[in-house]
Fold these 2 entries.
Entry 1:
Amino acid sequence: MTQTPRPDPLAGALILLIEDDTQIRRFLRTTLTSIGYRLLEATSGQDGLRQVSVQHPDLIILDLGLPDIDGLEVTEQLRLWTSTPIIVLSARDKEGDKVKALDLGADDYLTKPFGTEELLARLRVTLRHVQQVQRVETPVFTFDNVCVDLEHRRVHVAEVEVHLTPIEYKLLITLIRFAGKVVTQRQLLKEICGPTYEKETHYLRIYMGQLRHKLEADPAQPRFLITEPGVGYRLKVDE
Ligand code: CA
């Protein structure tokens, strides 16, 4: 199946790709430049770190398996001084690493091999998120048939008010803050219960189940409160 990528409203953004694999670099170069992104390339962690400080990219695509320093360490070093969004590329046999990368401050991940549409969707969400954070926060957030009034802390589903417990509401607004992006179990637990509960993932499953029950038409087949297996959750929003 061949699909022509759609023109992208965020075209022109400067992306730094830190990846030692020649084939993946070629694939990303062709894909990203054809729709108007500008691309810089680094083939090692050190070169990547140097280019971030010199070129100030809008977004970083970071492979976790690099020849010199580990992608996790690159993430950690970058987060000491910059909030430039990072999308990590992880190999399927290193699933644990992407969770570590997210906990260290990476914004999202793609598991190799990934498709063009998936890649472009992640880029759009991540770049748009930066723009939204820079804008004034809107007091009302809507997705699917859910409407959340952040100012008055009221939630409506199909125009019927739904009562959430304080924890359910915190869980929901944390997902809204990261709308479209994955949030790890650890990040969510830290936000809703505090740092002492970071490992209590079974609580999270319970709260998420309750939230789905109140917001989703079919809690067993959620449309927007999406599980990312082994990683965390994502609030799916319209692109
Ligand atoms: Ca690699």
Entry 2:
Amino acid sequence: MSSSESDRERNVWRQTPLLVPIVAIAILLGFMLAGVLAPVYGLLGSAAVIAAALFARVQARAPAVFATVAPAPAADIDAAVTTDLAAVIGAAPIPLILLNADGIVLAFSGGARALAPALRRGQPAVMALRIPAVIEGIRAVRVGGTARRVEFSERVPFDRWYEVFINQVPSPAHSGPDLLLTFNDLTPLRRAEEMRADFVANASHELRTPLASLSGFIDTLQGPAREDTVARERFLRIMREQARRMARLIDDLLSLSRIELNAHIPPNTPMPLAPIVRHVIDSLQMLARERNVAVEFSDAPNPITVRGDRDELVRVFENLIENALKYGGAGGRAVVTIKEPAKPGGEASVAVRDFGPGIAPEHLPRLTERFYRIDVGHSRAEGGTGLGLALVKHILNRHRGRLTIESTPGAGATFTAHLPTVVEA
Ligand code: ADP
């Protein structure tokens, strides 16, 4: 017997507590009767009472079949619903408005007040709902009687989209049925749709440019430059660079989608922070030398451990330090500083500071958007995909950390990765 079956069995015996004494008395009675009368009657008596007991047990095992509690009549349920309708609507977590047939507000929820602050009970709804599509929808439902769905959008204070369901609700009032307006905020859905469309457009544009250049060079190499060995060498070098750019883009896109997929699972492996940062600085020495930038490293006095994915953290510091070399290299210096958390278990930080041209304030909030670049030509010339800082942001989010950016135009920029630390036992 499985454990759930034996549990059920135990419950059955618990639900019929008289079962054991009944069976025992039945057997005793049976034998008493057997002594006085005839053995056969006694046995029959025992059998009858045991059968009754078994019947009781079966009844307990199948309460649905033998349920004795009758469903309550609808009228009783109606009488039992004593909750005030206005209170029910007021407590609804979505915007709801109840109007009578004359368009007077009978009740509304907190969400509806946020949507139309001028709503007042007893006042005409049109005074507060200044949305022509909704007012027209209310009119149409009052006249036609069939439920309607209306969409509308608001531009101020920022873009929002809603759908409203307008349904008739039977009412004892003589003027006709009430109207229930249920609002549904479509904004997050619309934003996600817009972002997806933008993303696909951007990604295909970024891939199409190097692809067009590749097929152009292939045509040239097959045609006019067929015999030109010098041109061929030069074209092949450019083609290799374009192919690398496409590979980098696909690599970044795949990394982004993988990180997004795992965004809800924070990495769990304790990782000492300094060795990772040191490794990245070492691996970028070639680029730093090429750009004439001296990279300085200032570690925290005590070792710091975070919970992290090593490859992803390498990616974060690689992107930030590479950007400091590529875009801030003119300053000739980059300083990477690890700072301890203010209190045990708090956030540690890794700041990457450059002394280049810096970033104008209007760009700062948009830098982590996918494909956002201040100067597309410069980014492309540097082999950038425009996805680096988006990746950094997503990786830090997954690590329950964050990215902050500060810059004074003309004096360089500081990109800081903040990461929660592990408390050492
Ligand atoms: P990219 O692949 O273009 O480097 P990123 O997402 O890493 O993409 O960076 C986005 C843009 O932010 C860059 O194109 C550049 O314009 C700007 N940027 C990033 N880091 C710096 C920096 N240290 N100084 C100035 N501008 C920067």
